[in-house]
Design a protein that fits this description.
This protein has about 400 residues and is mainly alpha-helical. It contains 15 helices and four strands. The chain has two domains: about 240 residues, no CATH class; about 100 residues, abc type-2 transporter like fold (3-Layer(aba) Sandwich). Strand 1, helix 4 and strand 2 form a beta-alpha-beta unit.
Amino acid sequence: MSTGAVPLKKFRTAGKAKGNGGVIFARAGAIASKEVMHIVRDPFTLGLAIGIPFILVLFFGFAIDFEFRDMKIAAYDHDGSRASRELLQNFSSSGYFKITQGERPGMPLFEVESGKAFASLVIPPGFGKTAAKGERASVQVLVDGSDNQKTGIVSGYITGIQLAAARKAAGGQLRNPYELRPRFLYNQTLNTRWFIVPGLIVVVVGLLSILMTALTVAREWENGSMELLLSTPVTPLEVVAGKIAPYVLIGLAGIGLVYSVARIVFGVPFEGSYALFFAACILFISTSLAQGLLISVITRQQQKAMQASMIAGLLPALLLSGFIFPVESMPLFFQYFTVILPPRWFMTIIRTLFLKGNSLSALFIPFMVLLLMNIVFLTAAAKRFKKDVEP
C-alpha cells in the first residue's frame, strides 16, 4: 500500500447517500476504489495474487507424484535357472523397478545400506527346481523401510508382481477360492495429478489470500495511513468490506488461471456445477482474506504478519487439510481439530466438484461450515477495528 493521504472528501461525499444501506455500500465502495488504486500502483501485489498461483500449481503439479517408478533393485541370482530369469524379467517389465546386478556376492545389504538401491532381491539355489515341482519357492526381498509411505506402496507392487508371476508359472490356471475385481470410480486410472492439482489450488490460493491482506494492511499500519483512515467517518464493517472486496476479485482471477492450468495442462476433469464452484471460491477466498486482515490488525507489522500468515495459512493447509494425509487416518484429536480449518472444508468441496460432481445436498455441511467461518473471521476483524477506532 502507498503512504499517500486518504481522500477524506470522498468519504464525506459517500456519507451523503440516502438510506443507511446506501451509506454503508457507498463508503465501503469508496474504500474499495482506494484499495484498487493502490493495487494498480503496486504490481508486486497484483503479480503475487495472480501470477504466483499459476506458477506454483504448474510447477508442483509436475513435481508432486505419489507413483514410484524405476526404483533400483540389486539382484542376487544364486540359481541362474530359467525360472529365476523369468522372475527378474517380471520385476523389470513392470515399469516400477530397474534391476541391476548385485555388486558384492554374499552381501545383499550393501546396496541398501549405501543407498545405491532401494531393495535387494535374493534368489536362492534350487529356486527353479522347487518351482518346477509345484512346491512353494521362496525369494528374499530386502527393502529399505526408512520411508514408510514409499515402502507401503512398493509392497503393493511386489505383491502384484508375485501374483502375476505365479499365474504365469501355472500357465494361467492359478485358481483362488474367490476373486476380487475392484472398479475405481471417478479416477479410474488412479492418476495422481487428478488428486494433487485440485488440492494445490486450496493450498496456494489460501496462503496467498491470507498474505495479501496481512501484508498490505500491516504496511498501512507501519506507514500511518491506517490511523488516518480510521479517523474518517467510517465504520469498522465498512473498512473490512472495502479492504477485502478488491482482493476477492483478484483471488477469483487467480483461481481462473489455475483452473485453466488444471484442465488444459494436466487434463483434470471437472464434473461438478460451476455455480457451486464459484460460490465455494468466494467463500474460501473471503474467509482467508478476513483471516489475513485479522492477523494484520493484531500484529501491525509486516514481518510479524508474514510469520503469522505462514503458520496460519501454510501448515494447516499442507498437513491438516487432507491434501496429503487423509483426515480419517489422523488421531482423533486432530480429526476434530481440522473442523476449525477452512482449507479442510474447501479441499473436500473442490476435489468433489472436480472428480465426483456431487450436488449441493452432498456438500451442504462443508458449505455451511465455510459460511460460518466466513462470518466469524469477518466479525472478529471488524470488532478488532472497532477497538482501534474506540480505544
